[in-house]
Amino acid sequence: MRALLVDSSAPSGLRLGETADPEPAPHEALVRVTATSLNYGETAHRTEAPDGTVLGWDAAGVIERAAADGSGPAAGTPVVTFGEAGGWAELRAVHTGLIGIPPAGADPAALSTLPVAGGSALRALRRIGGTLGRRILITGATGGVGRYAVQLARLGGAHVIASTSAPDTHGDALRALGAHEVIARPDEVAEPVHGVVDLVGGPQLVAAYDTLAAHGTLVSVGHVTGQPETFPFGALYGDAGRHDRSIVTFFLLERPDLGPDLTWLATRLTAGDLDAQISWRGSWDRAEEAVTALLERRLHGKAVLDIS
User: 87 φ, ψ to 5°?
Assistant: First the structure.
């Protein structure tokens, strides 16, 4: 099969080439991929993998061969999939617990944006708890996860505060997605919030934690700054009437039950309740162009490669 392979000698660290077809385990289905979306994490660390590796977390396509153990959808079923690797290829073997089934006629390109971005946003908001009538802060709101988090928090009835480094540039777009307020930094929050989805890390996480009301929860999802989270003395004492505030994390790849969430997200996306926010789309032979734009932070939203 053809695939985007890690190649340390290539300018982008990737090249289109031939590799062996994957051999599915009994609980895995074989999927013929039609579209895949890029995530900053996998592209930024692509050169850490050995040459010849097929990366790719997110992919949409059609079941080529159903799982041998009888789990999962039948051959011919359109699907959206998630996995640790293998999405940047014509064929992918994927755990049936990580397969979502979209409504008929769903766009594979839009579906391919859901697993990491939509799945992370949904799981993060669930960790916060009920959002109806609550104030929710989302940092790094212009990225793929952030844009889905803004939309899902608004769908859940929250008062949504979106933080972005360029509110003048991205404010209108974030408000169109559902943000009630757009700010430049967490320290601009006017009133305490009940929950935070932090997609930045470093000093912004520390500042965002300080915005939490009593019993509030910050869910740490992203760490794009590469800086440590250093709290000032006394920040975790629970003084000033704000007690039992929590910081929690999760790892999406340790959630083999993501399939139903992907099905739900795909249904909402196809119904028009969610916008995939695709900012770049092209053939996978233009992968170098997409990777460069993503790593240089010139893309706000999702980049999708059509697999042909």
Answer: -80, -20
Contact 130, 225 (CB under 8 A): no
pLDDT in tens, 119-140: 999 999 999 999 999 999 999 9
| pTM (2 d.p.) | 0.94
Q: Which domains does the chain have, with CATH numbers?
A: 2-113+276-306 (3.90.180.10), 120-252 (3.40.50.720)
Supply the pLDDT for residue 243.
74
**DSSP-derived pairing of the beta strands 159-163 and 135-139:** parallel
Q: What is the DSSP string of 47-96?
A: GGSPTT-B--SEEEEEEEE--TTS-SPPTT-EEEEE-SS--SBSEEEEEG
Q: Distance between CA atoms of 216 and 103, rounded to whole angstroms?
A: 36
CA distance 60 to 106: 10
